[in-house]
Amino acid sequence: MTGLWNDFNDAQSNTNLIPKGTLAKVRLTIRPGGFDDPSQGWTGGYATRGSTGAVYLNGEFTVLEGPYARRKIFTLIGLHSPKGPDWANMGRSLVRGMLNSARGISDKDTSPEAQAARRINGFADLDGLEFVARIDIGSDAMGEDKNEIRAAVTPDHRDYAQVMGTAGHGYQPPSQPAPQPAAASQPTAPAAPGRPAWAQ
């Protein structure tokens, strides 16, 4: 022990912020708010409706690896604001980046496979998503500094593969597992018509 228990001037400050611009692999957990609007595709109780009428996903991002492993960062992902479209557009942009990062898709890729990788069946597909985040610093309701996540890092970034821990494997949707080789005693079924390109 270095300090005295009656003089705390030499104790460490409790700022404890992850430096702005740090890249880290994180896992998103959505803290359910119980608000649904099926007309918007908001189902499953994931969305939260605030007192101002704003609707958002209450995101808890856990750092998975590196010097800040197990640290949690709390960020709201905007879905709707009564003040206008900006907050929802920022939320959509963040989710697009998260999907690109998690599924190894370049942001510039407009192929059918990339477009399929940027679609979700619902917010449940985002819950548990692992991707590379760029950590930022914002302010909480009291004006104090806090870490936030405003952007995801895609395979276009030179450090993506190192932080993600992969050289960028192709996206394989969980609902369409890779086909298994047919047993010798079973005839091979013909491919289903209209099968998406990433499943072939």
Key features of this structure:
disordered C terminus; alpha+beta; 7-stranded antiparallel β-sheet; 200 residues; single chain
Structure characterization notes:
- By secondary structure, the protein is α+β, with helices and mostly antiparallel strands.
- The protein has one domain.
- The chain is built from three helices and seven strands.
- Strands 1, 2, 3, 4, 5, 6 and 7 form a seven-stranded antiparallel beta sheet that branches.
- A hairpin with a 4-residue loop joins strand 2 (35-37) and strand 3.
- The longest helix has 17 residues, at 86-102.
- The chain is globular.
List the helices and strands and how they pair.
Elements: E1 23-31, E2 35-37, E3 42-49, E4 55-63, E5 72-80, H1 86-102, H2 112-117, E6 130-139, E7 145-153, H3 160-164
Antiparallel strand pairs: 1-4, 1-6, 2-3, 3-4, 4-5, 6-7
Biased composition (Low complexity): 181-192
Region (Disordered): 159-200
Structure annotation, total helices:
3
Shape: globular
* SSE series: EEEEEHHEEH
Our estimate of the beta-strand percent is: 25-35%
SSE class: alpha+beta
Radius of gyration: 21 Å
Summarize model confidence as the mean pLDDT.
Answer: 84
Show unreliable segments. 167-200
Report a brief summary of the structure.
Residues 159-200 are annotated as: Disordered. It is built from three helices and seven strands.
